[in-house]
Amino acid sequence: MSGKPMKATLDLVEYVKAHKGEFTIKEVGKKFKRPVASVRSIRDSNGLEGFFKDGIIGSGSSLEGGKVMREPTKADLTRLRQICEERQLPFEKWGIFWDKTKDSSIAFYNKEAAEEMKNLHKEMVEDMKKHAPKYPAVRYKKVTDPHLKLIDVADLHIGKLALALQTGHDYNVEIATKRAHDGVTALIKRSQGFPTERFLFPIGNDILHVDNGNNTTTKGTRQDVDGMAWMHFRIAKHMYVEMIERLLKIAPVDVVFNGSNHDELSGFHLAEAIASHFHKCKNITFDIDPIDRKYYTYGNSLIATMHGDGAKIATLAGLMSYEAPGWSDATHRYIISHHVHHWQKVMMQLGKDMPGVTYQSMRSLSAPDPWHAKKGFVGSPQSIDALIFHPEYGQVDHMSCKFAQ
Questions:
Q1: Which of 4, 42, 85, 125 has the most CB atoms in a 10 Å sphere around its CB?
Q2: Could you tell me the strand order of the sheet in which 357-361 lies?
Q3: CATH number (domain holding residue 373)
Q4: Which residue did the predictor score with more confidence, 52 or 353?
């Protein structure tokens, strides 16, 4: 029973192709109960540019029925040029201009700049795909008692620096990557009693500690770091490639990217780089769209993965029932979250006569940094977790490899 990442995406793509130019992105999103950002991402990743009817790019306004985004008029451009001159900003480089007055709040977009950026991103990805190494297709032995193994290198924070003298634990790039490799090795060995049909391998989830060369998170919080940001990116890429290559020797791998708060941009770029590297590999799938909550089916289990810094725990079961393809077909439902660095398991009941959802928060391999140590966020085991799923019985085991506490 193979895993099927985001199985509703195919239906959406086929629908758009069959109704070329008939519907806007917003209308398609409403029909398939998907956010506009999700439909736009599916459009870009499936070559559907030009298949949608032109329409408003955003939604919501201070005026009822008002448009959020439109192409600017000559008067709008004159006003923007004056503002740029007053503030010594390069007028030619603008992408979005938000004009707020007492009567309205309107965002203007530069269509040429947006297309240029989109094309640049597409060219970069296509160029990486051209240089992707060729992986021979692997013929795996038939598994008589199949299982899905979710191995989760969660919240590794490559680049984080901690000193035992200050925090009680040492942590740096070398320790982080060694723990990750050793942990994956241990979990593969310990789970040998469960025959492997597929691996589910989440990536992202604060894999990188900072998001830029200024050593800050996405929102600008400065961090203590070991090395340069570009070094962290390169180390993380090599680590992921080596891990995935090891898993591919055992069974097919489904990679799911969960964006996160420390490295929202660089983490996504890293996911793109990994997907491009394995572009010519037939035994792997990728779901790297920048959507907060991802849904995956295996047998009669529905598995959600997310970083955990977004929606509140109490709302996740309801969101799953609304967003997830295959909700009604699933006998077992699981939410796998990260972000808080400690193990937590909660059974959430949706209603008196309805089956519940199991929420599980995964541990982190990283040690507390000075800020966390000062605040008292210490004591959780520094470990890597693996969850084992049976196609009929759902989750049948949870394994951990602990390094420190």
A1: 42
A2: 4-5, 294-298, 301-305, 332-337, 357-361, 344-348
A3: 3.60.21.10
A4: 52
Which residues sit opposite 5 in a β-bridge?
A: 296
Q: What single letter denotes the amino acid at residue 231?
A: M
Q: Mark which of 89, 109, 129 sits at the end of a domain.
A: 109
Give pLDDT, residue 39: 81
> Are 349 and 256 in a shared domain?
yes
Q: Are residues 232 and 84 part of one domain?
A: no
DSSP string, 322-380: HH-TTTTT-SEEEEEE-SS-S-EEEEE--BTTB--EEEEEPP-SSPP-HHHHHHT---S
Cβ(397)–Cβ(389) under 8 Å?
A: no
Q: Which of 396, 378, 22 is nearest to 193 (CA)?
A: 396
DSSP state of 90: -
What does the pLDDT average to over 230-237?
A: 93
Residue 28 lies in domain: 1-109
Global pTM value? 0.71
Q: Are residues 24 and 167 in the same domain?
A: no
User: Given a cut of 50, is residue 129 above it in pLDDT?
Assistant: yes
Number of domains the chain contains = 2
Contacts by residues 120-125 (CB-CB < 8 Å, ≥ 24 positions apart): 122/44, 125/272, 125/276
Whether the CA torsion 66, 67, 73, 77 is positive or negative: it is positive
Q: Is residue 362 within 8 Å of residue 371, measured between CB atoms? A: no
Same domain, 102 and 163: no
